[in-house]
Amino acid sequence: MLKTTLLATGLAVLLALPSAAQSTNSGTDKFAQLETLLPTPNVYRTASGAPGTDYWQQRADYNIRVRLDDEKQSITGDEDITYTNLSPDVLTYLWVQLDQNILDKNSITTSTQVGEIQPRMPFQAMDYLQRDGFDGGFKIGEVKLKGGKALPYTINHTMMRIDLPTPLRPKQAVTFSISWRYNINDQLKINQRSGYEFFPEDKNYLYEIAQFYPRMAVYSDNQGWQHKQFLGNGEFALPFGDYRVSITAPADHIVGSTGVLQNPNDVLSSAQRQRLAQAQGAKSPVLIVSPQEAEKAEQTRAKGTKTWTYAAKNVRDFAWASSRKFIWDAMGIKQGGKDVLCMSYYPKEGNPLWGKYSTEVIAHTIKVYSKYTIPYEYPVAISVHGPVGGMEYPMLSFNGGRPEKDGTYSADRKYGMISVIIHEVGHNFFPMIVNSDERQWTWMDEGLNSFVQYLAEQEWERDYPSRRGDAAQIVPYMRTDKSLQTPIMTNSESVLQFGNNAYGKPAIGLNILRETIMGRELFDYAFKEYSRRWAYKHPTPADFFRTMEDASAVDLDWFWRGWFYTTEHTDLAIAGVKQYNINSQNPTVEKGRQRELKEQAPRTISQQRNQTAIPRTLVDDKPELKDFYNQYDPLVATPADQQRYQQLLKTLTPEQQQRLGSGLNVYEVSLKNLGGLTMPVIMQLTYADGQKEIQQIPAEIWRKNNAEVSKVFVTEKPVASFVIDPYQQTADTDQSNNAWPQQAAPSRFELYEFQQRTAPNPMQQQSALQQKEQKPLTTPASSSGGTN
Questions:
Q1: Composition bias, kind Basic and acidic residues: at what positions (predicted)?
Q2: How would you classify the pairing of strands 380-385 and 338-346?
């Protein structure tokens, strides 16, 4: 450190006057407000981020009847949709989503896929490309108005426009029906969000069924019809409504579904009904269908069918699962004064993991998410194990995580299973309740959900091995080439590095807000307020950004701009440190300090060598050449020095006199923002006596110069070192420039003895094979009659 002294009386002036570098902006005002980027507030969505006085949203109610063909792996169905226009607009047509058309032979998704052929490709990849002629798209039968009049319609890939015979005016409703059929995909070959798994050992199928019916698209105040084509990544935008769904399946199947079972007497045995009632107040999961009963069912093939009828109120979607292989357990909890039945459906191949953990994880997830958002109000929450690795629907989710056939599993498999259940069950809150537009903004459901998932994981087990949560976990992504990144505020179908961008970066950004920028109390209050305001409504990014600021009084525009709208990264650096001590003006003190510094100063190489080379100088030999200055010591305090000091003290106030003799240490630390992303400066000071202190400097330190600033620290004790972000709170991508004095980054390398290894040649391989088979080696003859 560069050490010098300064006058205490000028210290306040020095700190009050920024240098030219500190007051010169680097070209972009990273603290500019987001008004130019966010939509203008109106009567539908306010500047505070809350729904406006005239906020509205449409409603779609469904009565659906579907039949599962277990022989042909297909579904046929028909539905009645009652669509209520609660907008101020007159609608002449309606848009319906046909998301199953992503598996149509002429799918726009397949035709727009890009990629390169690799020397080695898994069979599954080729199965997906070729699909063996599989056609899984909707085959629409009839579209009719209530009363039987046919409605004209036009199918555009995954969207269908239905033209209304008369305009649908505000506050009016229309009821129409659609019939359809489609083939179910083999999920292990054609990986989608639903499908079937075939078990060759017992020749049974397990079905996880979603996007199985034509669904109403969203019509909203902020964009009109959301009819962006479904290409695969951007999930779903759906209105709320009530559902009644009747599912006809083989009589020996167990069917789990969104909603509440309406006809248990028709489909469950008396023992199963009794166990289900017992589960409502149970402290641990109760088996409704035991492993022994499921294995027995696997051996049967019922010729008849049963129809399971489920009803769900105020949900945005519906999904179900069916198999004769299902083990079924349940446990009831209280949440917000209401009963919630947590249930799991899984084949025997899922045990012992699923029987031990699944339902307990569901209950834990509902409790933790309710604490950080809003109370869970749906009557059931379900986790189903089958071929879909992880997918969410209201009250029901599909989850992976299967142990080995011998029942063993790795730690990664265990925690991976727990995490995916937390994540998918957590989606009940985002976006099933806080109903964001997934087709446009994946991060609004995946990112927010991944953040609360992290909180739930940490409340499951101390030091739970979460994949996404701590700031340091996003650093490898932030270090990647900028051409491989996209801003978070990128449409779902255009996002690069989907998991990092749509899940990890927004989730970790929220954790940085909570732990480092806002603090837990302010963040948690604002996050709950956002959840409360937009429960069962359609929020946009602006509503989230504005609510988080409105409820906390923290200006976060700089954070949204940098973290969400750019691909800049965090790299704060200490460029240098200058040390100052206050000049006390006391001649005894100051001259004594000067003498100490002089004595500690190293002698030059010439001085050291002259000590031997020149044993005596001329003055040593002729003392008569000495005068006053050969005896004079300028570092001795004289009476005149003391007199001047006393006169100075008379001109100072008692407070100024105390400051003059305080012996404070003053450090000017030069900071640089090399990554471009604005962040608070978390500075750790380690004092000479070993004590440590953390000083958190808000991000506004960069407001007048986004690139470099100097910060002055005044301490009573001398500082031995300064370190930025010692606990890796800000996703700093380069720790090597965070310390002063600079610290070497510890690492390791491995010593080994070099040995040239080559693969066996073909003869060696043949010899080894024949020796193994105990056959004599025959060497082929050359063309000249000799041997090779």
A1: 590-601
A2: parallel
